[in-house]
């Protein structure tokens, strides 16, 4: 689980003795969607949260919204990193000088960006 909301949802669902399918049925979504949220493949949507709060009004909305905000920010950072990587990979593909390519790869690697050959 790599999102705060996913971790919370998994733990909360278990505390309620709900299966993935049972929760999905109550919320009108697929079990695959619940599973994807729990393991962090998807970032929870505001519409899903609104429905969750409507059906389960006793939930701590402030805490859950904090998880949502954090996860959205982390997702944006990851998306930007991926975009940067694609830009660099395309730029690197246009370099004809092998020595220059090696130098660029080394600088990128020193900054945490490794581009596959």
Helix-residue proportion:
over 70%
Return Rg in Å: 20 Å
Instruction: Extract low-pLDDT stretches.
Output: none
Count of helical stretches: 6
How many strand segments? Answer: 0
Q: What would the principal axes of the Cα set say about the shape?
A: elongated
Word description of this protein:
- The chain has 117 residues and is mostly helical.
- The chain is 73% helix and 0% strand.
- The chain has six helices and no strands.
- It has helices at 4-15, 20-27, 31-39, 46-55, 61-93, 98-110.
What is the topology?
Blueprint: H1 4-15, H2 20-27, H3 31-39, H4 46-55, H5 61-93, H6 98-110
Features of the shown structure:
mainly alpha; 6 helices; 0% strand; 117 residues
Question: Short description, anyone?
Answer:
This protein is mainly α. The protein has 6 helices and no strands.
């Amino acid at each position: 689980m790599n999102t705060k909301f996913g971790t919370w949802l998994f733990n909360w669902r278990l505390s309620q003795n709900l299966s993935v399918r049972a929760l999905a049925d109550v919320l009108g979504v697929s079990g695959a969607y619940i599973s994807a949220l729990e393991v962090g493949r998807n970032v929870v949507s505001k519409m899903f949260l609104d429905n969750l709060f409507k059906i389960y009004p006793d939930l701590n909305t402030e805490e859950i919204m904090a998880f949502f905000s954090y996860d959205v920010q982390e997702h944006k950072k990851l998306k930007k990193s991926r975009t940067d990587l694609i830009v660099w990979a395309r730029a690197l593909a246009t370099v004809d000088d092998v020595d220059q390519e090696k130098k660029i790869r080394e600088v990128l690697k020193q900054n945490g960006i490794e581009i596959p050959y």
